[in-house]
Specification:
By secondary structure, the protein is mainly β. The protein has 6 helices and 52 strands. It is elongated, with a radius of gyration of 36 Å.
């Protein structure tokens, strides 16, 4: 108890000192002998102070609760009962129940204070003559019109606050709502002459002033939340940023052509007042709002708050609000910051007039893209298509917080959330990567319907945006029509970036790489996905001087029995030299001048084979897959393969319907063309199948050997 009293003495000292320095406080509370005083001034044009605590004021100890001085109650108590009062107050804040305590107010009248569950509050408040309700849950204690709520008075913030009831026995009962995470209420009963009349008269008088001085300006929308599955419900936050009240009459929300008038309350929105308009089922303290199509908050577009020919536009995110296990609200340019352990990353109903951006926030310009994976990753032989990800590198000089940033990839928009600040040179991974869960530099997101040509950008809450990838894959040879990033067995290849240049991800050896202690390299996923390196700073262009040659070409496809299989067309490449290039730039030049260009990965060792997908006649052979791949079977055609880094020609091959290779449509025979070198001379021949690879028995008139040298 001595510890509590000592702590309280310090609190009283500091609060008393601050009050003496604040001349405004002295004006707000007139010196009076009254033990209980209610204040209401919605036209007060400064930020109110949220309070529920004891203060020393004019040599008296008083409990003040509410939005001081906008909407608050002051109850001054006798010092003899201060220690017990503090004990009850502490129990309420801790969420514990404590027996009712009896003492006296400063005017020597009796009061009782204790903590209660909701059932205890219901017993205390039975058919009140009058009630001022700051917690919507308590409104249902009486169906009487004499219970006033948020529609009868204005609060600057849309939080639960105190409620006060006038009871039939002439006493009053003050109720304070539970603290977050608690179910325990604070209750205080007392006597006060004419308090009900004072409350009614003051609210009506101040509301008349607000209604008489309000203007037809437009408030602004500051925050929305539109996720269906949350028990919070869906809501829209509206804020008056002006020092004068705004009239309610004529204000309406327009969501994709559906116009709904805002519900009428006191007739005006106070200076710096924040309101929450929500669906009926919302658990927040809010104003019920029906008629709006709440599901439209997930659509891309705008919501308008308007009156006549005036309107305020608020951008919608065009996505959901649930990312992983966290719910995020949307602020028009960014998702809310999430710096607590709560699953709800938002601050609904909170009055804010300051810029949310802080000096510790990261600048979007200080990030570059290091790796982009648009296909997902192979896991236990199955391609996990939602395991797409982005790796960013932070290039700034200061340690900063990226939680105010959002990432955009195509139609996907996600907040960035990591559990630490980021330093120069660190990598930031964004995507759906289970093996990175718990990593401090990993931000969970599920990218859907993305492609290599979708733009990637990063932006902050002020609208500053940097494009990290414009969707154009540039090489020294030029811009390819198509990019091959997947094999028929599900193996994928990421796109790498270095000094602003894009290239296909080299092979990643998790055992030799210096970053082998990372979560990725230590997982089995690294072995199945050797052309990726999630959360590792790895991308670097190959300096190989080796060449790549065509080794086998099936420009006609296969025959399965008498059925032509054109999709079995393929190209086979072989690396010549001591090292192996990571990729090649292919050109297919048709006789009519049409040119198709493709960038494709190359195997680390052995032969690389390109086709449109899995082969009918060679079903066990794995191909690099380009679904649009084909080769012309008539006319004169030229194939060229280039070094994508230098633009130099590695090899070329000319063919026509007469060969090299065989396309005998009468006898249903097809033979690919393959090259051999002898005595320094290279020649092309028609293939003879010699048992490898496996060939479907029904394809006996097809001679080829993709993936094997004859």
């Amino acid at each position: 108890m001595r510890t509590i009293l000592s702590a309280f003495s310090l609190i009283i000292f500091f609060i008393s000192a601050s009050c003496k320095q604040d001349s405004a406080s002295e004006l707000l509370w007139e010196e009076t002998e009254k033990s209980v005083q209610f204040r209401y001034d919605p036209n007060y044009s400064e930020d109110p102070r949220l309070i529920s605590d004891l203060v020393r004021e004019n040599d008296r100890i008083c409990f003040i609760s509410g939005e001081d001085p906008n909407f608050s109650i002051r109850i001054c108590i006798h010092e003899e009962g201060i220690s017990e009062y503090i004990r009850v107050l502490s129990a309420w804040k801790e969420g514990s129940l404590i027996s009712e305590f009896v003492s006296t107010l400063s005017d020597h009248s009796e009061y009782r204070i204790g903590t209660y569950l909701f059932s205890g509050i219901k017993k205390k408040v039975k058919d009140p003559k009058f009630g001022l309700v700051g917690d919507s849950k308590l409104k249902f204690l009486s169906a009487s019109d004499s219970v006033w709520d948020r529609s009868d008075f204005n609060l600057k913030n849309h939080f639960k606050t105190f409620s006060i009831f006038s009871l039939s026995n002439g006493s009053y009962f003050l109720v304070l709502p539970p603290w977050i995470g608690s179910e325990v209420y604070l209750g205080l009963s007392f006597q006060a002459s004419d308090l009900e009349k004072e409350i009614r008269n003051l609210i009506q008088e101040k509301n008349r002033i607000g209604l008489g001085t309000c203007t037809s300006s437009i408030p602004i929308i500051t925050e929305i939340f539109g996720e269906t599955n949350s028990n919070l419900g869906r809501w829209i936050e509206v804020y008056n940023p002006h020092t004068f009240p705004i009239c309610e009459e004529g204000l309406e929300l327009n969501l994709f052509g559906n116009k709904v008038t805002l519900p009428k309350t006191t007739g005006f929105i106070s200076p710096y007042e924040t309101r929450i308009y929500s669906e009926d089922s919302a658990s927040l303290e809010s104003i019920s709002f029906s008629g709006i199509k709440w599901g439209d908050l997930k659509k891309a577009g705008k919501i308008l708050l308007s009156r006549g020919d005036q309107s305020y536009e608020f951008n919608l995110p065009g996505t959901g609000y649930l990312f992983g296990e966290n719910y995020y609200s949307w602020k028009g340019n960014t998702f809310s910051n999430c710096k607590t352990s709560s699953p709800f990353c938002m601050d609904p109903g909170e009055n804010r007039t300051t810029n949310l951006e802080s000096g510790a926030d990261c600048d979007p310009n200080d990030f570059v893209l290091e790796e982009l994976n648009p296909n997902g990753l192979l896991h236990k032989g199955v391609l996990q298509e939602d395991w797409k990800y982005l790796d960013l590198i932070y290039t700034g000089n200061k340690i900063c917080d990226p939680s105010s940033l959002k990432i955009s990839w195509g139609k996907n928009l996600f907040p960035i959330k990591i559990s630490k600040k980021i330093s120069a040179g660190e990598i930031l991974s964004i995507g759906n990567l289970p093996f990175l869960l718990g990593s401090p530099s990993y931000s969970f997101s599920i990218f859907k319907s993305t492609s290599t040509t979708d733009i990637v950008s990063i932006s902050n809450s002020n609208g500053k945006e940097k494009v990290l990838w414009d969707g154009i894959f540039r090489t020294s040879k030029g811009i390819p029509n198509r990019i091959v990033l997947q094999k028929t067995n599900g193996e994928t290849v990421s796109i790498c970036f270095e000094n602003g240049e894009s290239f296909l991800h080299p092979y990643f050896d998790s055992y030799l790489n210096a970053s082998s202690q990372s979560a990725f390299s230590q997982s089995a996923i690294a072995l199945e996905n050797p052309r990726t390196s999630a959360a590792i700073k790895f991308c670097s262009k190959s300096k190989t001087i080796s060449e790549v040659k065509f080794s086998e070409i099936s420009w006609m496809g296969s025959y399965q029995g008498s059925d032509p299989i054109s999709k079995d067309r393929f190209l086979e490449f072989v690396s010549i030299g001591d090292s192996f290039p990571d990729s090649a730039f292919l050109e297919i030049i048709q006789g009519n001048g049409t040119v198709v260009s493709i960038i494709l990965p190359l195997e680390k060792e052995g032969l690389s084979v390109l086709s449109s997908g899995r082969s009918i006649c060679f079903p066990q052979t794995e191909f690099w897959k380009d679904p649009s791949f084909s080769l012309p079977s008539s006319g004169s055609n030229l194939l060229k393969v280039y070094d994508p880094n230098t633009g130099g020609v590695w090899d070329e091959f000319y063919y026509s319907s007469s060969g090299p290779g065989v396309n005998d449509t009468r006898n249903k025979i097809r033979k690919s063309a393959y090259s051999k070198s002898g005595s320094g001379v290279r020649a092309w021949f028609a293939s003879l199948y010699e048992g490898r690879p496996f060939r479907d028995p029904s394809c006996s008139f097809t001679d080829a050997h993709p993936g094997f040298l004859e």
